[in-house]
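lol so apparently i was supposed to do this last week
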Amino acid sequence: MDAIRLAGDEDLERCVEIVRTLPDYFTPDVPDRVRSDWAGCATWVTEREDRVLGMVMVERRSAKTAEILWAAVEPEHRGGGLGTALVQQVIGALGRAGVELLEVKTLDESADYEPYVATIAFWERRGFLKLDVIDPLPGWQPGNPCAIYVQTLLR
Ligand SMILES: CC(C)(COP(=O)(O)OP(=O)(O)OC[C@H]1O[C@@H](n2cnc3c(N)ncnc32)[C@H](O)[C@@H]1OP(=O)(O)O)[C@@H](O)C(=O)NCCC(=O)NCCS
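anyway here it is w/ coenzyme A bound
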């Protein structure tokens, strides 16, 4: 039985480990960025039999806005609905906390990078709308077009 809960500091290294299992998706600097982002974010994890299998990390930008900074599910469990359940839980919790607009940045389809076809489909199926594409985005390598996706949580 899967359980979704807010992460504690004891979950950080396991979340970093999951990110490390996805080298086609995350550049080598990302594990350290997850560590440095951790304290300023809220992270939700999904757990099965006491093992964390996925995470979604969220940074509040203002009282009414937030961004999903990192999302990852262990490769052998991808495509099984864990990411959807996590994002639904995050959206519900943020909506109840007064967040009205949620952002996620991802690699745009114009990069023509096959691994992100599924990722883009995932965000679009979860209700995110592409607002803009920026290349280069400060902090991202040129040639990696950044798609800005947003979703209103107003109901
Ligand atoms: C993105 C991620 C967190 C989603 O978690 P998940 O548990 O795999 O997702 P789910 O099983 O809940 O949903 C799978 C969705 O992905 C999409 N998808 C999966 N494989 C796909 C493929 N080959 N082609 C197109 N869409 C695909 C589908 O839209 C599917 O949603 P649907 O069932 O509603 O159609 C996870 O796959 C992951 O860690 N990916 C690698 C890291 C990453 O891209 N992180 C986000 C960076 S912005």
